[in-house]
Amino acid sequence: WGSIETAKEKLEEILLSAKNNEIIFRDDHSNIRYRGATPNNYVKFNNEDWRIIGYIDGHIKLIKDVSIGNRAWDSSGGQYGSNDWARPADLMKYLNPSEVNKTDIDGEYWTSLTNDAKKMIDKVTWHLGGFPNGTTTILTSAVYDAERGTNVYEGHATEWEGYVGLMYASDYGYAASADCSSNIDLRNGYTTSCKDTDWLHLTSSDQWTLTSISDMDSSPWRLANDGHFGYTGAFDPSVSVRPVVNLKSNVGIMDGDGSKANPFKLGY
């Protein structure tokens, strides 16, 4: 391209391309996101395949293409664990450096990242709000608002400053086709064909999210492999983990077309 483009500029370029208007869009909050079953949103990061969720809250947001394995969200807070990520949760400590994980030791996953990858990750505010288990019908736009609200279990944090987190429930909702992300109930409706139009869905396993169940002390929302959102205690070690990071503003897209064969390349 002759010069480095910022992630936002490149995504806006793709957004304006007519041939891509079904796979990249602006959500209800003006964030740029990818949607559909197979968008070209691959990016090389940490010498691995990651994918771009979008340009969200002022940052380019990435998720690892595959799970790094199954782990408990937390097993140290009460009988079933705690869904207070900032407590800190065991998984938060595993993913992050000692600077934020309230220990003297960098998390095992953090230490596995390359130095280049670490330098690209921005320390940002992660939202820890959620919605209650009794919610039977909720659209993605309402989930997004709830995550940024203050509805949490009594005494739990509503925000956290850190480097590596998990996808929000709303990230999954907005990654589906236009009709699903706008009109289908995220709690139960995604067990239909919506999950087959959502690139964040994994058929092989359940996935943890960062979104809390606000009326329960011990359970974050879990994305089941059949496409619906359910819950299990945070202590459950059988749920898969896909790390999520936000890149610094001086990181740009230097090359690539986003396909799996030719992923975007990042640089300064």
Furnish the topology, listing elements before pairings.
Blueprint: E1 5-6, H1 7-15, E2 24-26, E3 32-34, E4 42-45, E5 48-56, E6 59-64, H2 90-95, H3 98-101, H4 108-112, H5 115-120, E7 124-127, E8 130-131, H6 140-147, E9 159-162, E10 164-165, H7 169-174, H8 178-183, E11 207-213, E12 220-223, E13 229-231, E14 244-246, E15 252-255, E16 264-267
Parallel strand pairs: 4-16, 8-11
Antiparallel strand pairs: 1-15, 2-3, 3-5, 4-5, 5-6, 6-14, 7-9, 10-14, 11-12, 12-13, 15-16
Describe this entry's structure for a reader.
By secondary structure, the protein is α+β, with helices and mostly antiparallel strands. Helices cover 19% and strands 24% of the residues. β5 (48-56) and β6 form a beta hairpin. The longest helix has 9 residues, at 7-15. It is globular, with a radius of gyration of 17 Å. The mean pLDDT is 91.
Class inferred from helices and paired strands: alpha+beta
Which geometry do the CA atoms define?
globular
Helix amount: 10-25%
Instruction: Return the average pLDDT rounded to an integer.
Output: 91
Number of strands: 16
Q: How many helices? A: 8
| Straight-line distance between termini | 14 Å
What descriptors fit this protein?
ten-stranded mixed beta sheet; 19% helix; alpha+beta; four-stranded mixed beta sheet; globular
